[in-house]
User: Fold this.
Amino acid sequence: MTQRGWLIDLGRCIGCHSCTVACKSAQNTAPANSPLLFKGGNPQLPLHLSYRWVIVREGGTYPNVWRTFVTSACNHCQTPACMNSCPVNAISKRASDGIVLIDQERCIGCRYCVWACPYGAPQWNDATKKVEKCTMCVERIDKGLQPACATTCVGKALTYVADFDATQSGENAPEGFSDPALTRPSTRFLKK
Amino acid sequence: MAASHKGDLCKILNPDMNRRRFLLISGTLAAGATIGNLVKPAPASALVTGQNPPDPTEVDAGVQVIMSVCQNCHSRCGIMARVKDGVLLKIDGNPYHPNNLGEDERPSYNTPVEEAKKRPGRLCAKGQAGVQVVYDPYRIKQPLKRVGPRGSGQWKAITWEQAFEEIAAKLKPLRDLTTPIDPSAPELGPIANQVLYSPGRTIEGGFTDRIWGSGFGTINKREDHTSICETSHHVANELMTWDEKANRGRKNHFKPDILEAKYILLFGSSFLEANFPLVALGRKLMEFRAKGGKYVVVDPRFSNTAALAHRWVPVKPGSDAALALGMARWMLENKKYDARYLANANQAAAKAAGEPTWTDAARLVVVDPHHAEARRYLRADALGGKKEHYVAWSGGGPKEIGDAALVGELEPGEVTVAGRRCKTVFQLMKERVLSRSLAQYAEDCGLSVDLIVTLASEFAAAGKQAVTNAYRGLVQHTNGVYNQLSVNLLNTLAGNYDWRGGNASGGGGYPEGSGVTPLGAVPGGVSPKGIRLNRAVKNYEKDAPNLFKRDGGYPARRPWFPYATHGNYQEVIPSAAEGYPYPIKALITYWNAWPYSTPALRKTFEAYVKDEKKLPLFVAISLNMGEVAAFADYVLPDTTYLEKWAFPGMTPTILTKATPFQQPVVGKLDGKDIGTVPFNPDAPNVYTPVLPNTKTVGDIHIGLAKALGLPGVGDKAFPDGSPLHTYWDYYKKGLQNLSKNTGKSIREIVAKGGVFEDAGNEYDGKYLKYKYGNLIHIYIEQLATTKDSMTGQYFDGLPHYEPPKFADNTPIAAVDEREYPFQLITYKLAWHAQARTATLPWLMIIQPENFVEVNASDARRLGIRDGDRVRLISPTSPEGAVGKAKVTEGLRPGVIAVSHHFGHWELQSKPHIVDGVPQGYDPSRGTGIQINPILRRDQFKGRDLNGPMQDKVGGSVSFHDSRVKLVKA
Assistant:
């Protein structure tokens, strides 16, 4: 079976969020308009969905400080915890290319998958009362195109891999990335 | 929270209110004009979609791609807009544009669009969020006329005809091209100069000069924003490349050849955030890094660029020149500079040595302070040679620098030539650089001697593949030009100009201004005369002799800027308010956010524009009800950058030639949705924007100029007798020119979004293909022989470090430091641009507000914790500004950093009223803090100059020199 996946070069992610916005724009994730709520005069993020996002970590003491950026999304795992957790079989893994998808017709909004996924990929939509996540832009892949995030990555950190080598699952994973043995993510990394 | 506020929030947050829903709403407002577009694309598959279906792809039936140019920041990257049935779906990068794809992945220009579109170009978050610029529900939808007092937020909708007629009636009496404004100082020019046009952001200067310059005849024809960006960087580069015959600079912008360089030293230039074009700089810098290249970031703040750097150097803000000169000192003392390159006195010597450029290092300068030629380069007529030639010391005597190859001695000591005591430029520079010790330089810039030596030795070890680059962090200080000249000196010592891996001036573009029709020619047009309100490129004593005499000579009432070749934006309003050197009667702005974007201007701006006696007419051409438009008499809503034409130009990061073309990607041409019928350059191409009662900035100008009866528009607007009735008429001529000059058809240029030279043409062996190929000045004779209008003293001709100063040259810290212990700096985020992007939800969701960033040790001392409300107070803003603290280790102690972009007080963050009806708004556009209004105003011997601190040489405003104190709010 072919498996689609991601290759992330940790030395090249510049934290610019171009992938985040490419995903929001291509997938029209909610909210599509002004995002902030005000509570007691303070801005507050509404529930919002980002199928792809950038994890920023920093540390150290002045002047020896560090900051890292890792673009992150659904890893379309080889043994997806989300799929195994779903009580209604709404989550499936495409036989042809291993892309993991949530059927919105079947999803009952129980959110088991949100808890099961070690990577935070499935996300609750408060408007539909269902869970959504990265589809790897299947509508693009099925037409021979690349996912929106990968086409736009400014630092060339994020690459779409059409034929992911399952044995490289989680290779060179950065600190904080969940144990690849759990779900065998279709993502590998290059060291910074 | 008021009920109506909740109602608005509900509407804003209604999940159905996506961009297609917006079309329904705006279509209703527009009397059904876009109702036909409301075909909601079918989901690709029910199995995989979330709440909303994904966009149809670029290869789906019925989807078209339109190539254009982004303007959601000033990078001007290529964009590929995906449209279907008149709806803008998605914006990607234009694959042909060299900003958007690397040399290894960019298709040849000959590749058909149908093929190239399958691999969209890369594009940043800002560019992609352009969809939300068009479909912003709170854009101004029709011309507005003020009905309450200025700034009261009370408007009525009027027609374009009424707007043009009323504005023209008020402007007409001011088009007096002969009566002097001030008979006692006729050099100021005629009454027409009392009309001032100020675009903040403009890439259509050539077009609007036709209206306000050649047409209306005002010398204040275009006062744009550059001085609040990085003017002193441009000015310093122009002085460094000064053409002595033409009396102007040859180049204003260099960038490293990143891919082939080995060592890059960035001073206040964040390649992964604010510097531009992010998409090209980010891609190239990461390629450079992957190949083992080392780059160093000199910045008080640990930026994202610093996070991936070889070294972060947290310099004391404003003292970068001390670091650069400390490095130069080490290179000079240890002979780690290219002496052979510097000794070439002319082009022939350079050519023989395999050098594309040469310098003035070997030229002699008259150093006798009492000689009439003091501070000037020695001219060869002193030796009986030609007056336009210079002199070097060679073979034990003076030699005229003519056409024959001449290699000079760099350090002959002081020599006497025809009774004049002289030294070489190199000697003068070296003595000056060595006049401070490494320990003193280290003290000046707050770094260690060891670090300076390490950086200097790393830089020197990379030879001609070591390059410095700098931008607004370096130059937006009162010492901006000298900072830039000091950083440039390192490039000159390395001799890296035009070398592969060295300093590049870029590939440039193909000309579009002439070929078939000269776009700048205006039959019956006038040449404006006089002195600009901001005194840019004018010398107080020489250009205004009557005023100089009347005002008793030095000091001038306000500074003059004899080398501000890119204008002075911040000085316009304080000058108008003071009526110096003359008052103005009408102000027309476009895409301008003066009080928001400019340091220390809000108070002066609002007090001035509120007074109708002082400013009788104020017209704002504006997309939004921004901080400027809110005070105007008339607001004329223009279209977005995705709904207009332009030739936006390129940056020197790109080493091949390119002339991109901006065009509407959405809206209708001749009544048909763009993309639904093939583009026809011979059709009338009458444009209807998405909001049909808005107009392109060009059509607004044409309407106004016609109402005024100005030359240059209407019938017979061009020398060949052809008309200019629509904005398209103008750009059609530009395309004809470009087509003739490149041999490409207009249809191909329009389809591919410009003309682009193929990748593979970057180099000529060990050199860059497109070269500067000329003289580099170390010594700036123009400055050494020009007097500072505020002191009557000559400016300095050499790179040097001076602390940031007030207009009277008192160091700022000496006055303010004791009571205001922190230095405040600003920066920009990678996913925002200037004043314009707070309206874009996709960007605001990444980080909903900004912070007052404080070093952790400072915060501990003051008892400040993350999230505390804190107040920043400056000497000229006792009320200060309040923001949320963020405690960080990534900032030099004693420095506070606040990002730009947030804290709008207008921009539809609150409602305005049109015809008695409160308009929709979004308070999220006003979150966070904008510190520009509290930055320090300049002073002259205790007199408040009522405007920001600035660089008297280059004209840059100071963003990073204000001292503040920090208290809990």
